[in-house]
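Friendly challenge for the regulars: who can give me the C-alpha cells for this chain first? No prize, just bragging rights.
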Amino acid sequence: MSDLFDQQAMIGGEVHYGRVQRRHWGAILDAARELGIEVLATYIIWEMHERREGEYDFTLLHEFLAEVEKRGLKLLGRPGPFCYSEWRNLGIPDHAVPFGKHHAEFRRKASHWIRAIMAEIRPYLNRLIIALQADNEIDPMPHFYGEDQGFGQWLQVKYGTIARLNEAWGTSYADFSEPIPTLTPFFEDQRLRDGCRYRYDLATDYARWVVREYRAHGCDVPILLNTWPGVDAQHWHDLADLVDFYGIDPYPSNECQSDYRYFRERLRLLRAVAARPYIAEFGSGIWHGMPNREYTPDHYRLTALTALAGGARGWNWYMLHDRDNWRGAPMNERGVLRPDLAEVFKQAVHWFRLFRDAPPPTASCAVAWSWHYHQLAQIRKRDADDPLFEVLHGMGLEYDFVDVDRAFEPPTLLLAAGQIEQPQRLWEYVEKGGNLVLFQQLIDGCVRPDGTSHPGADRLEVSLGFVCDGPVFSYRKPPGTPITARQLRIAADDDQQRLWDLATGRTYTTGYIERRGRGTVMVVGCPPSRDAILAVHRYFGIEIPVRALTPGVHASRRGDKIIVMNPGETRTAKVMIDGATHHVDLPRCSGVVLQADGHGGFPCIA
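First reply, four minutes later:
Bragging rights claimed.
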C-alpha cells in the first residue's frame, strides 16, 4: 500500500455535510480551499442514514461527495460505527444501543452497516476517498455497558487455571465467574494490573474486529484508528500495530495555560508508537459546555507550531465550521470565514508545508516509558509524577519516549522514569551498548543504597559537575566508579554558622557508574535537575542539538530548521544551537521558525 503521507500533504479539516444546510456546502468547501486545506474529513453517521433497520438512504452523501470532488479536494471518510460527535446515541441507531461492542448482536448489526456503507463508497476509494477511519476513539464504555464484559474469559486465557489466578491474586475463588474487574487504583497490585490490561485488551479486540470488517468489505485505502488521550481507553501501541496510521485527538486548554506539558508529552508518545504521527482531531472550536476552550488566534499558532515541533506528519482540524453543538471554528455554518482566525489558519498551513519533508525531531536522549504507569496516571487524572518529566519540560528541550514494555530501537542515552515492570529490556539495552541513567527511581537489578542523607540536604557539589539541592542516596561500597556529593558551606547568621560549618565537607557516595556488557549504567542517586541532566550529557559526550536558555521557552530541531515555542509572554529568548547562543524575538503565545543559512546563522523565516 502506498505511503499516504508521501502522496498527500495531509493538512485537513472536518466538515459535517449532514449538519449544515445543503445550500451552504459550496461556500464551506470554497472557504476550506482558501485556508489551504487539501484533505477534508467527515463523519458518515449510521444513525443519520438509516431509515429503518437495515435500510439506508445515502442520497445526501453522494451529493456531498460530488461537491468535494468538483473542487479537487480529497476526503478522509469516518463511517463509524460510532462517531460520538454530540450526536444521538453517539452515532448508532436505537436498535443497536442495548448491545456493547463485544456483543454478538452489536457486531451483527454493525457488520451490516459496514457492508452497506462500503458498497456505497467503494467506487470513490483511491480516487476521492484516500483513507478511512475505523470507528472512533474506541472505548469499551464500562460506564454504559458495565465493567464485566468477559473478564472471566480474559482471566482464563491469561492464567489457564483458577489455582494460578488465586496464587497471583492471593484469593480463593472457586472458578473464573467470581473475579470482578479492578479498574480504579485504590490498591496497586496484580488485580489492578490485570484489570487495566483487560480494559486495554477490550479496545484492542474490538479494533481488530472492526478493521477486519472494513478490509473484508473492500476497503483498500489506508485505515486510521484514533484516541482521545484524556480517556485512556486504549493501549496506543497495540492499536497502532493494527492499522496504517494512528492519531490522537487533543483539545488542550486555551493557549495551553494548564496543560502544555501534557500536550507536548502526548505528541512524543504518539511518535513513539506511530511511524506517521497524525492528529486525527486537532481541536478547532469546541463543543458546548467544555470549559476553558474559548480558543484565541494565538492558541492556534502555538498548538500548530508545537505539533510540528513534536513531529506531526499531518492533522485534521476539528471542526472547520460551526454547527449544532459546536462553536468557535474558523468559519460559521454558512461558510463565512472569521478574519482573525482565517489569517492564523493560513499561517499554520504555511508552517506545515515548510516541514512537509522535514525529518523527525532530533533528540539527544530518550525517556523510558511504561504504558501501565501511564495508564494509572491517566486514571488518576494527573500527569505522571516522576519529577524527571517536570524537569525536562522546564528545560524546554526535545526528547523521545521509548516504550519499554516491548522491544525498542536503542537511543544513545536513555533516562529511566516511573515504574517499570519489565526491566530486563533495559538491561538488554545496556548489555548491547546503551547508556542507561537512573536518578532516584531504581529498577530491579540496580544496587539499592545503604541509606540516605537527611531530608533537608542542600548545596551538595556532585562529582559529575553540578550542585544538587535535595536529599540523596548514600552507599558504602557501590559497584564500579563512585559518584560523590560534597557538602558546600552554607552561609548562616553568626549565631548558627558554627553549627552549619560542622557539615561543610561531609561527603556522600550517592551513586555509581558501572560497565555492563558493552554499555554503561549510571545511578546518580540525586534528584533530577536541569544541571544534573546537562552534566549527564557532558559525561557521555552527547551534544544537545538545540536548547532554550530562557525559562518557559521550548525549542525543537527538525533538519536545518528550528522551531522556538513561547507558551507565555516572553518577548525575547536566548537559544543555544550547535554550541552557540542566538537571540530570538518572539511573539506571545506563539513561536517562530529559524533556518540554518549555511554560515552559522539561523535567521527567522516564519
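The first strand starts at residue 11 and ends at 14. The domain at 366-543 is CATH 3.40.50.880 (Rossmann fold). Your move, everyone else.
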